[in-house]
Amino acid sequence: MTFSGLALALEWNLQPAASRLAAEIQDLHEYVMILCAAIFVGVFGFMFWSVYAHRKSKGHQAEEFHEHTTVEMLWTAIPALILVLIAWPATRLVVAQKDTTAADLTVKVTGIQWKWAYDYLKGEGEGISLISTLSTPREQIEGRAPKGEHYLLEVDNELVVPVNKKIRMITTAADVVHSWWVPAFGAKQDAIPGFLRDTWFRAEKTGVFRGQCAELCGKEHGFMPIVVRVVSQEDYSKWVGERKKALLAQADDPSRKWSLEELKARGEKVYAANCIACHQASGQGSPAVKAPALAGNKFVTAEPGPIDTVLNGRPNTAMQAFGRQLSDTEIAAVITYVRNSWGNKASDVQPAEVKARRK
Amino acid sequence: MNLEQANRRLCMRLALIALGMFGFGFALVPFYGQICAALGVNSLTQRDSVSNTQIDASRTVTIELDSNTHDLPWRFRPLVNHLQVHPGELATVEYEIVNQRAAPVTGQAVPSYGPQFAGEYFKKLECFCFTQQTLAPGETRRMPVTFVVDPKLPRDVNTITVSYTFFEVAGRGGKS
Amino acid sequence: MSAVIDHDHAHGHHDHHGGYGGIMRWITTTNHKDIGTLYLWFSFLMFGVGGIMAVVIRAELFSPGLQFVNPDFFNQLTTMHGLIMIFGAIMPAFVGFANWQIPMMIGAPDMAFARLNNWSFWLLPFAATLLALSFLMPGGAPGVGWTMYAPLTVQMGMGMDFTIFAVHLLGMSSILGAINIITTILNLRAPGMTLLRMPLFVWTWLITAYLLLAVMPVLAGAVTMTLTDRHFGTTFFNAAGGGDPVLYQHIFWFFGHPEVYVVALPAFGVISQVIPAFSRKPLFGYASMVYATSAIAILSFIVWAHHMYTTGIPVSGQLFFMYATILIAVPTGVKVFNWVATMWKGSLSFETPMLFALGFLFMFTLGGFTGLVLALVPVDIQLQDTYYVVAHFHYVMVAGALFAAFAGIYFWLPKWTGKMYDETLGKIHFWLTLVFLNMIFFVQHFLGLAGMPRRIPDYPLMFETWNKISSLGAFGMGLAQLLFLYIVVKCIRSGAPAPQKPWEGADSLEWTHLPTPVPYHSFETPPVLH
Questions:
Q1: Once rounded to an integer, what is the mean pLDDT over residues C513-525?
Q2: Per-residue pLDDT at C496 exceeds 90
Q3: Per-residue confidence at A299, pLDDT binned at 50, 70, 90?
Q4: Which of A356, B135, C127, C509 is the most exposed place for a label (fewest CB within 10 A)?
Q5: Per the CB < 8 Å rule, is C381 touching A79?
Q6: What is the pTM of this model?
Q7: Where are the alpha helices (DSSP H) in chain A?
């Protein structure tokens, strides 16, 4: 490995702010840092000087004093005053940060091991849902391919929001605690299973902003980034229109009969996005997270296939109820793929069968 | 009192402190529930009573409705995504659940509010979350939530998100 | 009394080792010095184990991509590194100091409950074994972080249960130790040793022991609830049954924040002995030191939710915990100012213990300032769960507690072993540790600010350079500690004989009233104090 990123990589301060809140957090941080640095230099300048001036090797004789009430009162009172100077601007910012009222757009974000689901609840784009999964290929992570510019910070479906609009993010989680964080917006909020929390941001620049899950959520915690694309109002309206059209088009007719090859091809993609983290590209599974091997697995190749398991999940494991995230076609495809890969051989599963099991 | 007795006595007292603190850890559980109820955070499944029904027509509040299921083979959604109400006004919304499993399933809904303190002002008179719901295989059920937004709601709050999460009640209705 | 005597050991020929020789002597010993020695060696062993884990973690983070360990094992390593370093290395090290020093410093013959003392120690190896065994369970050790947040703990395998039982044993050991220390200090002081004449190290341990007594049972409660949630159908932390995952965090941090001071206060105590000794001048503001220590201990109970700003606690809660937290800066500041004033107009010399004490003062204060930054809710929202937090608490735990432990070991080693350590090597050890420590942790502030989350096995390319520097520092730090082991062994085996009072300015009873090396039983008759 080389120090290839040397020029780029010497980041040492907060990321450039893209919202007023983030900018104000930076200002507060700088203000406190300067204050702290001044005190630090003052106290330790004094200490090093007194250590130097009163060293024994120079023959300094120790004096015997060991208290001084006035001085002691002073160095209790003065720091207390300085703290007030710090607490005051911080308080103002805390209140602003918590003010999630009067939002233009409300988006619910659900943390799932290990991806994010976004549902546009209210405002333009209402009804759009997307699932956002890491798109960095495994080969890059495992060092079998050169790493791209946005290594570990790229997803298949980005959260798209309009610029200069107040976006309220409602967080919750499907399994364990996650934390949704975009540094450039100064917004971080834990996502807690069974409960609702909220935060907000107003992006003031268009562009792509990236963050990562900030609360340990299991094995792939480091691999569930957050990518937000901030676009102009016109582009946003256009995106909403396209998205809605695509949603209609994507609503595959579940009664159509698919060929085995079609299903396998589609299933491979679904597998890569949803299953590979635990069950591995080789289908060997990982015992550490109780993910069984799929290769040579009799339960997988038995009739009618593990449709119920994929639909409903296994409680208290990372195996989720994918019925809520994937369409009938996607589930049929991924099961067919699993039943016909790594030496497995079994019949295909049609979307209609999945649809039937849902009821 | 000799030294050994004094030591033993102090030891007993200190052991009692430790035991008490072990109990305190558990006492935090109901205590936390009380604090949350008092602050209107995470207030759970009890029926509220409403005394003041004065309608404050001078402002409207948007109620956003949200639904989640947690490891449960149900399709669960509100029939409307949001509505406008005046504080003090009685309103009813409906949710729909579909049991997608070929077996009866029992679930319990847990409500949650955004912003959190709004829970205190969202008074539920009727809610499917007061009791467990058991659905037969394939059953579809529509369930109402009747509520009043307390007129004491701070004036700067104009949106309340109400979210229900259904959890499976273990050991009831049978797992497949 | 004894027929067989361990000739190699520093205490050498003495006739009060109890009825056994060899290994049985150590298993059955009720002598506070023997038990102190056991604690210290156990602590060093755990320091080594936790350190190896840290080196593996840093090796994985040397470059982006997955190289040596898979993400799941990485999480297991960070979890165990944290648990082992806190409960296995740092806490037992200071209990070891307490065992050795408290009876000597207050003029007592031994600890109040000698048999109990033996049990407190021997619980530790069992706990450590349970932690080690958890790696061998199906699913491995828990990969949940040392904070063990629900509901991730529910997903873990058997290793989680082993860890929970280990935490129970560790907690039991700490509670028994705390009871013993409090009783010793309150009941066994020599006539004339009033509370306000006790050395500050004894004071800090008295307060620490009360903290332990108050918070270890709460941790035991939290992990017990985790256990029943996992296996017995309770729903303390599960919304499905009316519980709340955030409740776990409240209970855990109610223990967790005072725990920080359980580690820090004895460190303050050691520093308060070392600095006056090498300044040849009494501690400045003794009374205010006692009050400041008490104030810190009390405040530590009302600041726990500053670890939870991003969980969505109400704004009034955020403000309360922010104000309470920054308030701790006042008594902490008083302590730092007192130490500096102790040195002012003294007659200073810079042997190894003093160097570590000065290093402690400098870097612990740095950790204090980053703590102040993190206490501010808006800034913490950005920095919570990033490497900034990792840097902050390592400055407190390593540059703070570990440096104080090193200072204490070099300070008292002559008294304990009767021999001097190699001063030149000691100084080299100090400078190597200082340089590598800052290399590891200072750059982590930058990583955190730039947005690198903690507990990730792989990271985006923009974090590469600082991570490389940090990893190189970790490798150096690991090697430097081998030098420390060599220094201690060399001192025990072939150090020059130490005088009764090798440090000119030291003035507590173990230096003024006891010969070097100390007899197996100190103060069979109480010393006479003026």
A1: 86
A2: yes
A3: confident
A4: A356
A5: no
A6: 0.85
A7: 6-9, 20-53, 69-97, 138-141, 233-250, 260-274, 276-279, 298-301, 307-312, 328-339, 351-358
**Local confidence band at C242 (pLDDT 50, 70, 90 cut-offs):** confident
Query: What tokens were used for C168?
Result: 């129970």
- Interface pTM, i.e. ipTM: 0.89
Q: What's the rounded Cα separation, in Å, for the pair B98 and B72?
A: 11
A160 DSSP β-pair partners: A229
What are chain C's domains? 31-512 (1.20.210.10)
DSSP H helices, C451-495, are 464-494
Pick from C113, C66, C154, C101: nearest CA to C510: C101
Confidence of residue B176 (pLDDT cuts 50, 70, 90): very low
Q: Kindly report the average pLDDT of chain C as a whole number.
A: 91
Whole-angstrom Cα distance, residue C501 to residue B22?
Answer: 44
Q: Which fold has domain A260-358?
A: Cytochrome Bc1 Complex; Chain D, domain 2 (1.10.760)
Instruction: Write down the pLDDT at residue C442.
Output: 95
Residue with tokens 């997988």: A300
C12 dihedral zone (left: phi>0; alpha: psi -120 to 50; beta): left
Distance linking the first and last C-alpha atoms of chain B: 68
The length of chain C is 530
Determine, for residues C244 and B42 on separate chains, whether the beta-carbon distance falls below 8 Å: yes
What number is the average pLDDT over the span C288-311?
Answer: 94
Is residue B173 over pLDDT 50? Answer: no
| Alpha carbon C439 to its chain's center | 21
Contact between C376 and C321 (Cβ < 8 Å):
no
C290 has a pLDDT exceeding 50: yes
Tell me the chain C residues in contact with residue A153 when contact means C-beta distances shorter than 8 Å. Answer: 460
The rounded distance, in Å, linking the Cα atoms of B156 and B140 is 38
Cα(A267)–Cα(A265) distance, integer angstroms: 5
What band does C5 get if pLDDT is binned at 50, 70 and 90? very low
Cβ separation A11–C463 shorter than 8 A? yes
Residues 147-176 of chain B with CB under 8 A from chain C are: 165, 167-171
B61-168 CATH pick, 2.60.370.10, 3.30.300.20, 2.30.30.90, 1.10.150.20: 2.60.370.10
Q: Provide CB contacts within 8 A for B63, sequence distance 6+.
A: B82, B83, B84, B85, B91, B93, B147, B149, B159, B160, B161, B162
Question: Can you tell me the distance from the alpha carbon of C155 to that of A289, in angstroms, rounded to the nearest whole number?
Answer: 8
Q: Across residues A3-14, what is the average pLDDT? A: 58
Distance to chain B for C313, nearest Cα, Å: 8
For B24-75, give the DSSP string.
HHHHHHHHHHHHHHHHTSS--SPPP--------TT--EEEEEEEEEES--EE
Sort out which chain C residues have CB atoms less than 8 A from A223's CB and list them: 71, 458
| Beta carbons within 10 angstroms of residue A3's beta carbon | 10
Residue of C nearest to B117 (CA): C314
The proportion of chain A whose per-residue pLDDT surpasses 70, expressed as a percent, equals 95
Task: Indicate the fold that domain A105-250 takes in CATH.
Answer: Immunoglobulin-like (2.60.40)
Q: What is the pLDDT of residues C100-146, one digit of tens each?
A: 999 999 999 999 999 999 999 999 999 999 999 999 988 889 999 99
Residue among B47, B56, B35 nearest B149 (CA): B56
List, in order, residues 6 or more apart from A58 with CB less than 8 Å away: none
